[in-house]
Predict the structure of Flagellar motor switch protein FliN-like C-terminal domain-containing protein.
Amino acid sequence: MPHKRNAKFCSQSTPKMSAASHAAPMRRAKSSIKRSRTTGRAPEKTRNAASCERASTLAVITNRDEPRAMRSPPSPIRLRSVGATAVARHRLTHPYRARCHLADGVQADLLIREDLGPAGDHDEGLPLSTRFGPAIAYHYAPLLLACTGVDVMQGAGPSAQTALARYAIAALDPALQTALGDPTVSDSDSEATSLRRESPFALNVQIRLPSIRLAMRLVMTATGVQALLDGEPWQPDCASLPPPAWLTGLDAGIRLVVGESTLPLAQCNALACGDIVRLAVGAFDVAGRGSVRTGSHRLLLRWGDSHRCFEVEHMTHDPSLSPNDMDAAPARGAIGPADGIAPIDTAAIPVRLSFSLGTLRLTVGDVAALRSGSLVELKDGLPPKVSIEANGLPIGAGELVDFDGRLAVEITQWPQAHVPSSTS
């Protein structure tokens, strides 16, 4: 039990002292407070130590008894600060790629990496406005010429060249515009000026067409770089590499939850072995068919007694099923005092009961190879046996039953009910 382990830890971590070692400090303490023969008072050093000890004891008692409103607020945890530039530089340890299918049927491959070369730009660059924030483009004329056929350098002066660049950027293929953040030539010099002062982040943007490869330098804020990398269609270049063996052998952790039912605490407390619990939310039917989600795919499974495993009958892909979705709700603001509010009725507190068949015996590599007709086994347990969890805590076991054509669970193992003592 945790309490026993804590007691054991304390007894082991506290050094034992013999009777003699106890007596020695006591003798020293007595000798330190002997009265002076001449004055009849304890030495000044001893009196100061004793007064400090009494003051510290009084302070502990005072802090313990003083009202909560009078206590000083706890100091916040100080976390190490990480800047946006460091995060962007770390993310670009591997370059990012994007594949764009242009309207004329040509495929353009884009590559972004950090530009570590010296600035060395004698021109002012082309100020841009993107959905990721302000940016400045350098050496952009060859890229615009290859993608749009507009030669920016044919302009008679800076104003004419800027006008041609504005036209060429607007003529970019929609797929390229999306990848670059829908850029437009900025008419405001203040954004470009402030960007140059903020120690911006430099990117090397390469584009590969069937017959040519070109590059330009794009300067953005570190926050804008992260927004660009998070947007479509950019992906880390390492994502195309085959995953390592340790990753493909990792347990996929796909649990088969046949259903859930939420009961008030009072009803949950009244449950016992032999009771039937209807599943308010069910993922399986009485025929053994059900679905399970893995990433952005949903598998339709069917239990086969002959194989003693599940068969994948069908697979569907739903992009709306993001693997990054979390069940936890976002953090709320601070909760105010509960003065004047009625006390919580504990009997009405909801308890979520989950009924699980177990975990599929699948690795990450096995999931990638799933097809219709694949057979998957359970790690432990077999239907109709299920484990019962209350708010995520395993508390009992049950058996799937057909209750008037609906799937339900009969409780076969349940925590022993509390029996009040005769003295209570």
In short: The chain is about 25% helix and 30% strand. The longest helix spans residues 44-65. The chain has two domains: 85-240, 248-321+346-413.
